[in-house]
Amino acid sequence: MRPIVAQLVGQLRTPFVSDNNRLAAKLKHEGIRAGEIIAYRAWRVMAPRWLGDDWLRSVYMRDYVWLPDEPASGEVKTHGIYSFRDAIRSEAEYSYGYGADGDRLLLFGKVKIWGEVVEHEAGYRSQFGKIVSLDYGDPELLEKFRKIYRVH
Q: What is the distance between the alpha carbons of residues 111 and 45, in angstroms, rounded to a whole number?
């Protein structure tokens, strides 16, 4: 009886690991292969006065640009391409507030993801992603970026 109690106490004393990157690095591939997954995410639009380019950017990785003719990519064990299982349609749903420089222009839509994919409680972290559609946001910006990224 004593060893079982000691094991339980030892487990309770083990600190909860909240570092998702460390957890992802330890994941064993289960051999399951799937096709593309359709998920949802947001992109940040830079106001012309800052950079002046016509590309969508990651919301939290400020320097990451989603190029129109190339898939986005990232190392799944460190950061990867994040997306949500359920549609997000607003800044409130995305839990995004003003950035340090006051930028708050977001567009929302669908992304297809593939490669290595880690499933999380609310969505995914994938190796590759490509914009499929831009669905919510400022109507003028939606029209502009739908043309640039050749999506609907």
A: 16
d(CA 43, CA 59): 6
- pLDDT digit string, tens, across residues 56-107: 999 888 789 999 999 999 998 888 999 999 998 877 777 665 554 555 689 9
What letter would DSSP give residue 15? P
Domain residues for the domain of 122 are 22-27+34-149
List Cβ<8 Å contacts ≥24 apart for 94-99. Answer: 94/42, 94/59, 96/42, 96/59, 99/62
d(CA 152, CA 143): 9
How would you label 125-143 residue by residue, b for 16+ Cβ within 10 Å and e otherwise?
bbbbbbbbbbbbbeeeebe
Q: Is residue 49 part of a domain?
A: yes
Residue 63, SS3 per DSSP: coil
The C-alpha angle with vertex 72 and arms to 37 and 18, in degrees rounded to 5, equals 75
